[in-house]
Amino acid sequence: MFSILVTAIGSFSADIVIKTLKEAGHKVIGCDIYPKEWIVNAYNVNSFYQVPYTHDKEGYINSIKNICKEHDVQYIFPLTDPEVDILSGIKKELQRQGVFACISDDQTIKLCRNKYLLPKFLLEQGIKQLIPTKLLFEVDNNHVQLPVFIKPVLGRSSQGCRPVYDYKEYETLKEVLNGNENIVQPLLNGNIITVDVIRDSKTDDVVCIGRRELLRNSSGAGTTVEIIENKELGNLSAEIARKVDIIGAVNFEFIQTNSGEVFFLEINPRFSGGVKFSCMAGYDVVSNHLRCFTNQPIDKKVIKKMIIARKYNEFVTSLD
User: Fold this and answer.
1) Is residue 218 pLDDT above 80, yes or no?
2) CA–CA distance, 53 with 61 (Å, rounded to integer)
3) What is the tens place of the pLDDT at every residue in 244-283?
């Protein structure tokens, strides 16, 4: 059994990650930027630590290293994008100290996080199901074909994403936004499909569990989903995972238009906020993610098609 540090334990995926690891007998240390009383899962881990915000990079890294040293941590499960970005940059340094950050390598993380370079790379690799993507400065006011979708090159959780239907709004955004830090894509209407993808880089085996998002919140997380089986989508996801050199569990997003066409949107190089949906459908994403870093073969996919709705519970964490 291992000593595992799980970060951002107030995030969507934390509950199933902690529960699965503890049921397997692992010692789970949790951390978050908020105090213990604000985080229900802080009471579900063996030890909890409040750590600095990730924009204090040095302070954050030092806190993580100190926690790892104090608890003889062997593996780290980072659950949010900023933490993945930081820890991927020191992944080799941590590994020399006997600590394995359970994420893809740094160059893969950087590619996944760049919403301009990633589709260019995939197109060069022969992937065709892509939305035409340009930097904002590359599309002038006279040649833009509305409606379009504008989003940050390095965005996360749907922050800064906006559909644009009006020429005056587009002109204003061109003046206000940094043209090198935002992309423009044709606006497509349809259903978002999220695919939890698990790749064992040693054997090159890939497992894909797809779900159609029936309801979605403003942060881009599905709240009611339908587990689906789509062989073509699974094959496409597996091909992309191999091209990008994914290690472990991540999530891909696609959009299926009203005509049935599927287009790739993005890769989040971490657990999806709805990873529990895949676990409920019959595939233990969390344990198989760990296997990708412990030289154990991952399970084959066995899932059930179903519709799953998420609800929220309230807990008292402090009482005067």
Assistant:
1) no
2) 10
3) 999 999 999 999 998 989 999 999 999 999 999 999 999 9
* CA proximity to 278, closest of 256, 304, 253, 296: 304
- Rounded CA Rg of the chain: 20
How many structural domains comprise the chain?
Answer: 3
10 Å CB burial of residue 87 (0-12, 13-18, 19+) is buried
Amino acid, single-letter form, for residue 63 = S
Measured from the Cβ of residue 173, the count of other Cβ atoms closer than 10 Å reads 17
Tokens of 209: 């569990």
Per DSSP bridges, beta strands 162-164 and 148-152 are antiparallel
Cβ-based neighbours of 5, under 8 Å, separated by 6 or more:
29, 30, 31, 64, 67, 68, 71, 73, 75, 76, 77
Judged against a pLDDT cut of 90, whether residue 158 lies above it is answered with no
The pLDDT tens digits for 176-196 are 999 999 999 999 999 999 999
The domain in which residue 68 lies consists of 3-102
Q: Where are the alpha helices (DSSP H) in 97-136?
A: 106-113, 117-124
What are the DSSP calls for 228-246, one per residue? E--HHHHHHHHHHHHHHT-
**Domain annotation covers residue 291:** yes
pTM of the full predicted structure? 0.93
Q: Do 202 and 91 share a structural domain?
A: no
